[in-house]
């Protein structure tokens, strides 16, 4: 299971400034691989005091980051590497790469904000193609709510 979170700071244009993910083995609870980069804000390059206080992310960190298109490219290279090494497959790959030895993997987020709103909006605004791998995820907050209603 991979998890991803985009830290954002409420700038008028929105946008994520941090792009972390981990590959978590749900059988062992071990983190098997990590990805992390800061994303340089393009429209509002200076972080607000609110953003720094909210996230703990500093101006120096985002200044040393990369534009979103570079971040996505780096992330996809990381995903491809761990897919090969760990023999994992995402639901968006099932039709083209189905093998009996592949282990299922999915993104897990807390709400639909990261993948369903923020990344989609940022890619559209920046005229980037959102990679298909981000079209399927588990919203852990919604799952938790449903589970609480059942119990």
Summarize the structure.
The protein has 151 residues and is α/β, with parallel strands linked by helices.
Please give a structural write-up:
This is ERI1 exoribonuclease family member 2. The chain is an alpha/beta fold. It is built from 6 helices and 8 strands; from the N terminus they run ββββαααβαββαβα.
Helix-strand sequence: EEEEHHHEHEEHEH
Whole-number mean pLDDT: 86
Terminal-residue CA separation: 25 Å
Counted by DSSP, the helix tally is 6
- Quickly name the level 1 CATH class: Alpha Beta
Rounded to the nearest angstrom, the radius of gyration is: 16 Å
CATH architecture: 2-Layer Sandwich
Helix content: 25-40%
Contiguous low-pLDDT stretches (5 residues minimum) are: 1-5
Structural class: alpha/beta
- Strand percentage, roughly? 15-25%
What's the CATH superfamily, by name?
Answer: Ribonuclease H-like superfamily/Ribonuclease H
Sketch the major β-sheet.
6 strands, mixed
CATH topology name, in short, is Nucleotidyltransferase, domain 5
Count the domains.
1
Shape: globular
The total count of strands amounts to 8
